[in-house]
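[job 0412] stage=fold_complex status=start
inputs:
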Amino acid sequence: MDETVAEYIRRTVLKIPRDEIKVMLEKWGFLSEAQLQTLNFHQIKDNISQEVVQLCEENSADIKQAAVLDIIYNHIYHNKRMWSVYQMRKTGEELEYFDLTDFKKKFKRRLRSALKNVTITFKEYEDNAIWIRVAWGTPHRRPNQYKPSYVVYHSQTPYVFISASVLKSNLPLLCQALLVASNYHDIREMELRSHSLNSLKDIVFKRYSQNFPTYCPKPLQEKNVEPESVDLRIVQENRSEKERIQRLNQEIFGHGPLPTLEFAHYRLETMFKSDPKMDVLDKKEPFRCLVKFSSPHLLESLKSLAPAGMADAPLSPLLTCIPQKARNYFRIREKKGLFPESFVSP
Amino acid sequence: HLATSLPLPSERDHLRPRIDLVVFMIDIKSKYSLKNVEASLPYVDASYFLGKVCFLVTGVGRVNYCSIDTSAICKLGEDYCSPVLFCELELEGIRVATAQRLLRMLQICAGFVPGVSALSFSLLMRKSADD
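[job 0412] stage=fold_complex status=done
writing structure:
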């Protein structure tokens, strides 16, 4: 077995938390049941990984199998990577039957015709997700297995989720290969990024609970209203206001769990409006500024702003449109014309 | 009676008893809360500022999250001739002690402590702060 493959397997196993190693090796299925029995999972990880490498040696593992293990690891720990969403477009309306083998063949052929040194690995999952792992090399160097790109493609949808490696130059090639393999004509990057792959899927596939216009106007009894304090000596003067805020929040955010996003970026290219006497920024140039909201769970924290009394309800549509518009990167420019308001660029 | 801002909603006027003490709570972590209090102050009748108003600043335990200058709050207290209390609601001991202080003030403001009026008590509190 190649030394580099052995080292790669060793390092991949080291990444896995000790309690999860057995499960992941079982999912991998490369080592037999008997071989797994011989492993002692109660020793330190260093030793476990050495033993795994030895077993892989017995089975003559090559980089292809090692890459599958890497995909399995990243499928479970997808939150460790940053994912971007891309949308593909077809010009025709033809409903084509999706052939997986054809897709894989075309994808590999397209990539390999441009770059000889690549490692391409596929793994399909039950939810129609196809995971593709690509390790990139150069004409003179073998692929770097430690900086691969991951692509998740749901064949019934025009969406692709990509976690690119540091080398941005390989991205156009990757996109081209995807277009050719999937028979689409055009691909564009959406302004939507997050660590949580599942949340990105929830947003673009509209799997989270949304506001439906037929929602009944009266608030649901007992549902999400704060439990009234049993102490009758406390009187809430602004109860109707609190209820209004709850109702607005339900309308805007729905009442299910919200997708997890970590940040929202607003790039402002608007004119600085100040008191003419202050004489700041005389030049008629837009004042460039980046406003970044970050949170472990941005949408939940936005939802709790008004009930916590930290913001007025309803919140600015720039914040609340994030799930519907499926974007968390915005560019705000000055609206030219009669109304000096800013508008969000497409 | 808890309210998020003043003026109080008029639809409940008939349900409200006499108000003896108004405590304005300012969260030191939120500039919005100070603005809200400043906007609500004009709705208080001038007679309340003779000892029946108090400012309670919460969240002082989290030094890293202070958004408001304490000197701004102290100036607010001076401008409105009302005492400023600082507390941290997340610590039970301080929470209980603060509640007891407020209760004591309320007793005086409601006239339940013979010989001490709200005005004299507030002057007492101010004098000790100035020293």
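[job 0412] summary: Confidence is low (pLDDT under 50) at residues 219-225, 337-343 of chain A.
[job 0412] exit 0
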